[in-house]
Amino acid sequence: MRLFNFFIVEHLFRKGESYFSRNMIDLTIQVYDKALKIDPKNHGIYLHKALALSRLGHYEEAIDTIRQAINLNPKNPVYPLFAGIINLDACNETEALKYFESSIQLDNTYIFARQYLALALLKTKKIQEAIILFEKHGFPLNNGFKSRFLLIMSETKHEIEDKELQVLKKIINKSLVKKEKHFSIMNYIDKRQKDWEVQYKRAQELYSLGAFEKVVEICQTILLKNPNDPKIMKLQGEAYFSMEKYADSETCFKKVKGKLGDDSDVIFKLGISLYQQKKFDEGVEKLHEALNLSKDVDEGRVAYWLGKSYLGKNQIGQAMYYLSRAFGTINNFFFEDEYSKIME
Q: Fewer CB within 10 Å: C terminus or N terminus of the chain?
């Protein structure tokens, strides 16, 4: 995604979240559609649009939408989890089971997926299998889960034996809840988890969903025990960058640059972080470095920010050269508008 569009998409994503939290679902979907026109490969927005469609009861469209998220990011266990939930709400129990199992295959530690798998088993009248999972993994402290549980119980109560019913009643009364194993999708850190690789995977997952503050928190926790790991510092820097905390992203990217060397994406974002703090001389230096590497970063994007940096230095000739170079490689309405303003 071209970087100058990144900020527009980020703004639209947050706006959509705000509408969703206020139950303004039609507006939520409109905003997400605008974001996807700019960045049609943003899997996180497809996920959130699917959840909004599901809330309206548009299950078929929601399922199609979340499939797009899965296709774009097939290794993220959150997406099949929510695909399963949407299918469960749409009474597609068989499909729901497949998605929950897929989520567990992607991440064997994903307790929330196992709890929803138990719910789907209950709905398909596989009572004993559901009870075994509930007894092992508990009942999540989640109102949406509880509502689904009660609805399924009312549908299947005639199929459940008295002994099984008593066990399920204990579950709903929380006597079997294992509180230490529950988490929120957007705010989860497994406090007992010693394996920092699992925490890193969670941080990547949360980053894809836009939970940047939580990503920073997880990375800080990991860095206490792994202070020199460059990929953790890079992810933390990217989260700060997405939050527009450019002084912090600068610090992270400089540390990463010293360890990873010629990582053009890191150097590019470091250059932008410096520009945003009006450190134009240093920013120009880093952006030229990124342009020379030109491996993972689009030339037009680098030229665009070089042009703006030279403009900050009041070197108009250099600014126009790089902005023209960028304009020649980028066909985008937003860029054209900004370019015309600068030319004026």
A: C
DSSP state at residue 179: G
Residue among 156, 210, 197, 186 nearest 32 (CA) = 210
Mean pLDDT of 253-262: 74
* C-alpha to C-alpha distance for 113 and 134, rounded to whole angstroms: 12
Residue 227's CB is within 10 A of a number of other CB atoms, namely 10
- Same domain for 164 and 15: yes
Most confident of 193-197, 205-209, 295-299, 326-330: 205-209
How many whole angstroms separate alpha carbon 298 and alpha carbon 264?
Answer: 10
Residues 102, 142 share a domain = yes
Farthest CA pair distance, the chain: 83
**Residue 62 shares a structural domain with residue 84:** yes
Helix, strand, coil percentages in the chain from 3-state DSSP, rounded to 5: 75, 0, 25
For residues 337 and 344, what is the distance between their CA atoms, to the nearest angstrom? 11
Q: Which domain holds residue 304?
A: 279-344
In a domain, 272, yes or no: no
Residue 333 has pLDDT above 50, yes or no: no
Distance CA 162, CA 293 (A): 69
DSSP class of 180: G
Q: Is there a single domain that holds both residue 20 and residue 168?
A: yes
Whether this prediction's pTM lies above 0.70 is answered by no
Contact 66, 47 (CB under 8 A): yes
Cα(312)–Cα(88) distance, integer angstroms: 54
Based on the domain organization, do 116 and 162 belong to the same domain?
A: yes
Q: Which of 206, 233, 261 is the last residue of a domain?
A: 261
Identify the DSSP state of 296.
S
Cα distance between residue 327 and residue 341, in whole Å? 13
